[in-house]
Amino acid sequence: QVQLVESGGGLVQAGGSLRLSCAASGSIVGIIAMGWYRQAPGKQRELVARLSSHGITKYADSVKGRFTISREYAKNTVYLQMNSLQPEDTAVYYCGAFLWREYWGQGTQVTVSS
What we know:
Elements: E1 2-7, E2 10-13, E3 18-26, E4 33-39, E5 46-52, E6 57-59, E7 67-72, E8 77-82, E9 91-98, E10 102-104, E11 108-113
Parallel strand pairs: 2-11
Antiparallel strand pairs: 1-3, 3-8, 4-5, 4-9, 5-6, 7-8, 9-10, 9-11
């Protein structure tokens, strides 16, 4: 079992920044990748950024150049630095860990006001 706890969401004005954190615990050996996904009201959950255990990153086109995913192995924590936030970035952001199955955090709300 893997437990994921997200933090760092909140309300920010357009153009502002937030940093999300996701602390992993439990059976974290064997994690293939970790990532951030988001779900806006009435929409499907979508990939925001993903980081493999080999350091390969993947970003949604809509966040390239604005968001950065990183991982601090000593703290078993993954971060999502979000800059130049826009109202369309408003969503619940979920942290995911990918092993032989997927694990998800409880989600953290990000609201960007115009």
